[in-house]
Amino acid sequence: MNADGRTRLDQTPEWTALAKHREELGSLRLREVFAAHPDRGTAYTLRVGDLYIDYSKHLVTDDTLRLLRELATATDVFGLRDAMFRGERINTTEDRAVLHTALRAPRDAVVEVDGENVVPAVHAVLDKMASFADRVRSGEWTGHTGKRIRNVVNVGIGGSDLGPAMAYEALRAFTDRDLAVRFVSNVDGSDLHEAIRDLDPAETLFVIASKTFTTIETVTNATSARTWLLNALDGGEAAVAKHFVALSTNAEKVADFGIDTANMFEFWDWVGGRYSYDSAIGLSLMIAIGPDRFREMLDGFRLVDDHFRTAPAESNVPLLLGLLGVWYGNFLGAQSHAVLPYSHYLSKFTAYLQQLDMESNGKYVGRDGREVQWQTGPVVWGTPGTNGQHAYYQLIHQGTKLIPADFIGFAEPVAELSDELKAQHDLLMANFFAQTQALAFGKTPDEVRSEGVPEELVPHKTFKGDHPTTTILARELTPSVLGQLVALYEHKVFVQGAIWNIDSFDQWGVELGKVLAKRVEPALTEGADVPGLDASTRALVATYRELRGR
Ligand code: F6P
C-alpha cells in the first residue's frame, strides 16, 4: 500500500498480470506476428488530426494492449486527465493547477482556476502579442533611433528557450526571411557573443523570456545584452523601452530589471516552463511566423487536446504511446527512447522533448512522498535521420540494448525547395521506411547465406530484428501539425507520470545544482574559502584558478 492509500503500483493485479503476460509471451518475433496477422500493418494504426500513427512494429499483441489499458484504468489516468483539464491543483508539490491546455482553448471556452475563468486573460495576452508582432513585422515598431527592427534575440533557458527555438527551426519555411531570429540560452558568454557580434544594436530587439525572471543564466545574459545596447545607443531607459520586452509571470522582477511592464507579456503559474511555448513565451516565434500562423499552431494543439480528452482508450493516441513506453520501460527493461525525425526542420525537436519528458518524469519519489519501486522516465535522445543512420543506428540494429524509437516523417517537402531538392524527398523517406523495416524484421542467417556471404561473416551480417518503432506520418510540417505533435508528446508524458504516480509538473531535481553553483562562484572568482566544499571540488577549484593564472 502507498502512503496515499493506493495499492502500490507494482502490487496491483493489473501490473502483476502484465508481468505474467510478459513471461508467457517470451520473445515475440515480429516476422511471425506479421505472418499470422497479415492485416496488422493497417489494423495497428490510428489517426489523430493530420497524424497517421503506425504501431504495428511493436512487441505487443492485442492482449498486451488490453492489459496495458487495464493498468491505465486501475491507475485512473483518465480521472487525473479530467482533473487537469478542470483546473484542479494536480501539481501537488507546488500546489498549482496544470493548465497549458487553457493556452489553446477557444475564446468562448470556460476554464476555471479557483473559480475564475482564465480564458479571457489568455486571449487578451494573445491579442497583445499579435498586435506587437504585427508592429515589429510591419516596421511600425522601430528601435530607439527610428530604425526598423531586423533582428530578434530571444534570451531564455530551458522551457523559455527550447520550445520557441525548436518551433522557430521547425517552421522556418513560414518565417519572415527578412528578420533574423536568434536564441541565446547558455550562461557561457560566447553564446551571446556569437548571437550579437554581427548585429546592429539599433535594429535589434531583445525578448527576455523567463517565467520566474530570477533564472541566473537569463538575468546575466539580459544584463550583458543591455550593456551592449546602451554602449552603442545613448538613451538609457528610453532605449531599453524600445529594445527590450519581457515574457514572464513576475512583473515585479521585470520592473526591477528596468523593463517597462507595458512591454511585458504575461503568463501564469499554472503554465509549466516546459509546457509554455504556446504562451507568451512564444512571442519570438510569433514575430517570426506571424500571428495567423501562431494561431494555426494553437489549433493543432487544441485538436490533440480534444482527442486526448474525449477519445476512447482503444483509439486514444497519447494513451497508446504512453502505455507502449510503460511496456518497454517497466516490463522489457528498456532504459531509453529514441526520437528520430526525418525532417531537418525538426532538428531541435528531440532536444525539446528531452526537457519535456525528462524534467517531467525523471523522478524517483512518488506523489505520496515515497521512493517508487519501478522505473520512471526514460532517457530521451535522437537527432534527425538520415544523419543518425551514419552514426549510432549500428547500435540500435545490432547492439545489446532495447531501444524503442519514434520515427517522424512527412510526405511533402516544404513548398519553397527547388524541384531538384524536392526530388530528394523520396530518397529521404525511402531511408525512413527502410530503417523501420530493417529494425522490425532484420535479416536471418539463411537470407545472408543465400547472398553467398562466407560462413564466418554470416553472424556479423545477420540482423535479429524485433526492434520496436512507432511511425508518425503527416502530409506536411505545418504550424498546425507541429502543434499536434507537441501536444501528442505532452499528453504521452502525462499518461506515464499518472501511471508511475509521480508529479510530472514539478522539477525539484534542478535546484541543488543551482544552489551549489552560487556557493562555488566566490571560490572561483575571489578564491574565497567555501566551507563544506568536498576534497574533489576543492582540488578542481584550485586547478581552475591556477589555469586562469589567479
Ligand atoms: O531550472 C529548470 C527550469 O526551472 C525549467 O523548468 C525552466 O523551463 C527553466 O528553468 C527556465 O526558467 P525561467 O523561465 O523561470 O527562467
Topology:
Blueprint: H1 13-25, H2 30-36, H3 40-43, E1 45-48, E2 51-54, H4 62-74, H5 77-86, E3 112-113, E4 116-117, H6 119-138, E5 151-155, H7 162-170, E6 180-184, H8 189-196, E7 204-209, H9 216-232, H10 236-243, E8 244-248, H11 251-257, E9 264-266, H12 283-289, H13 291-310, H14 317-331, E10 336-341, H15 349-361, E11 379-381, H16 393-398, E12 405-410, H17 419-441, H18 445-449, H19 458-461, E13 469-474, H20 479-500, H21 511-526, H22 535-547
Parallel strand pairs: 5-6, 5-7, 7-8, 8-9, 10-11, 10-12, 12-13
Antiparallel strand pairs: 1-2, 2-13, 3-4
Helix pairs in contact: 1-4, 4-14, 5-20, 6-12, 7-12, 7-15, 12-13, 13-20, 14-20, 15-20, 21-22
The protein binds 6-O-phosphono-beta-D-fructofuranose (F6P).
6-O-phosphono-beta-D-fructofuranose binds at residues 157-160, 210-212, 215, 218, 273-274, 359, 507, 510.
Helix content bin: 40-55%
CA gyration radius, whole angstroms: 25 Å
Mean pLDDT: 97
Contiguous runs where pLDDT drops below 50 for at least 5 residues: none
Our estimate of the beta-strand percent is 5-15%
Distance between the termini: 57 Å
Distinct ligands, ions and cofactors found in the model:
6-O-phosphono-beta-D-fructofuranose
Category by helix and strand content:
alpha/beta
Strand arrangement across the biggest beta sheet: 1-2-13-12-10-11
Count the DSSP helices.
22
Taken from the alpha-carbon principal axes, the silhouette is globular
E-strand count: 13
The main sheet comes to:
6 strands, mixed
